[in-house]
Specification:
- By secondary structure, this protein is of the alpha/beta class.
- The chain has a single domain (about 25-325), classed as Rossmann fold (3-Layer(aba) Sandwich), CATH 3.40.50.
- The chain has eight helices and 13 strands.
- It has helices at about 5-25, 45-50, 90-100, 130-145, 160-170, 170-180, 225-235, 305-325, and strands spanning about 35-45, 60-70, 75-80, 105-110, 150-160, 185-190, 195, 210-215, 240-245, 260-265, 275, 280-285, 300-305.
- Strands 1-2-4-3-5-6-8-9 form an eight-stranded mixed beta sheet, with helices on both faces.
- A hairpin with a 5-residue loop joins strand 11 (about 275) and strand 12 (about 280-285).
- The radius of gyration is 22 Å and the shape is globular.
- About 40% of the residues are buried.
């Protein structure tokens, strides 16, 4: 064969192979569409939030990334993902892929960038966890109005700091203060800080609450979540806590190493906090006003992934969301 002809044939074969590769269907975890959805929120201190002092809040524009799953029907259910103190990381990213693979849209909410925050790991005073609950309610309203989303099939899942917003947004009191006409279909929290007792915290929406926590977590202690879920159950709520042995904070992250020391992390693992009748957070042991300078606040904790237990947690969440959102 002529050298030139051979070269042309080789080029055609390469182009054909490339075209065939491009024609392959994308993995189910790849979104078919990505939208940046902005919304207005306000920034409140804990006391302002608990008193319902919306007028004191500073208005802020935030946004989230909405990922529509491939081969989606006209309308799909969705889950709002709320990051922890470190901001958006590979954790929420990996969950978004899992959700899209199930046929569920994922909305990765960014509570930090619009406020000029990078991380609150070393300084939680930059933004109280309760303020992120207002963000969750506003994001719910934005998604409910989206023509691609089923308004009555939107769940919320948070991680650590973001889990406060995800779990306690189920409270009737907080929803009445900051929510709109929409209601979350389910509330999920990973390694949730449950060490604060709020007035009316067992009066919650008639939807399921699911908590997932590593037993050896020394960043956010599991003990208060055991107590809170027990109180919720006693009040008749559909609440469950799944416990995972040998699992640290962030155990569900598929990319995290098994154990990492975070020497400068602020942790309230030794604190029990309660809300006073006037809407102020108090140290439950001393009844003095609580803040991050309280002696019970520790410095230093660990994070780490656990491939086996993380996979079990993901399996449990997928089964739960399939039942709640897809059936």
């Amino acid at each position: 064969m002529h050298i030139r002809s051979l070269g042309i044939l080789t080029a055609l074969l390469v182009l054909t192979s490339a075209a065939a590769a491009l024609a392959q269907p994308a993995p189910a975890s790849w979104p078919t569409r990505i939208e940046i959805q902005p919304f207005r929120s306000i920034t409140l201190t804990a006391d302002q939030f608990l008193r319902g002092d919306k007028a004191a809040g500073k208005e802020v524009w935030l946004a989230g990334e909405l990922r529509i799953p491939p081969s989606a029907p006209a309308k799909v259910p969705a889950v709002i993902l709320i990051h922890g103190s470190g901001g958006i990381s590979s954790g929420p990213e990996s969950w978004a892929r899992d959700l899209n693979a199930m046929g569920i849209a994922a909305y990765i909410l960014d509570a930090f960038a619009g406020r000029g925050i990078v991380s609150t790991v070393e300084d939680q005073n930059q933004l109280h966890s309760l303020a992120m609950m207002v963000d969750a309610y506003r994001a719910l309203d934005v998604l409910a109005a989206n023509p691609r989303i089923k308004a009555d099939k939107i769940a919320v899942m948070g991680f650590s700091k973001g889990a406060v917003a995800a779990v306690y947004s189920a409270m009737d009191r907080f929803r009445g203060m900051y929510g709109g006409g929409n209601r979350f279909a389910a509330h999920l929290g990973f390694y949730t800080p449950c060490n604060t007792t709020y007035d009316g915290d067992t009066k919650v929406s008639p939807v399921p609450l699911r908590l997932y926590h590593g037993i050896v977590d020394d960043y956010v202690s599991i003990g208060p979540c055991r107590d809170y879920v027990a109180r919720l159950k006693q009040a008749g709520a559909d609440a469950e806590l799944a416990e995972y042995p040998d699992s640290q904070h962030g155990f569900d992250s598929p990319t995290a190493p098994p154990l990492v020391a975070v020497a400068t992390a602020q942790s309230t693992r030794n604190c029990l906090v309660k809300e006073s009748a006037s809407g102020q957070l108090l140290n439950a042991a001393t009844s003095a006003p609580f803040n991050m300078a309280d002696p019970c606040v520790a410095t230093g904790a660990h994070v780490g992934g656990n491939q086996e237990q993380g996979a079990l947690a993901r399996k449990a969440v997928r089964a739960f969301l399939k039942d709640v959102l897809l059936n």
